[in-house]
Amino acid sequence: MKKLLSIICLLGTMYAACAQEATIQHLRKELWNVMPFKTSCYGMIPMQCLEYKKLDAKETATCFGIKGFTLEPGYQYLLSVQVDSFIHPPSDGSLYVYRLLKIVSKKPVISSAIVKNKTWVLVNMWHAERAPIDEALMKKVSLQINSKQFFGTSFCNNYAASYATKAARWYLTAIAGTKRFCDQHMELEQRYFELLQTVTFVVTEKNKLKLYNQAGDLILEYLEQKK
Predict the structure, then answer these.
(1) CA dihedral (7, 86, 35, 51) positive or negative
(2) Total domains present in the chain
């Protein structure tokens, strides 16, 4: 009886696999450069998507995911990807299905040397469920990075924190600062320090500096101040 049940289960599994295969059309294999962090995208609801660029493309594109692949934030990937399509695509889903064939390469995205000895001015700060921060106020906040420290001016005080790096990750010590009291800006400053303390990844993009937390969320963004 057990043997018969096993055969029935095996046949059922094979049938399901064949049925699924019959709904998919194999199209092509592609090489993708996958960006080191997810980006906002929209399906039925707002989501975080993979951002990639095919080797022969000029612009990046997004997808909800690649079967068999999990992005580790802070690393640039070159992937071999199988691209398939549904013969009868679902009305609420994507036409295409992507499956990982091989991780060709995986490299940390940042060299600390290219962010050092520059002055960066705050232009974006994650501030959930609160009123937008005045741009002129953010411009008072600066960040500099040398071989040992993050330091700069905040909404009220000067601050500094030592750091270490390992592969693509950055690790900050506790932030120390001056003790000036600014009644209107202390809450913002506390929020800024809390975000800065969670920085794990540091990325440059043209003349911008972007800081991400461990989950790969963009938390702070700066613009290079030209001398």
Answers:
(1) negative
(2) 2
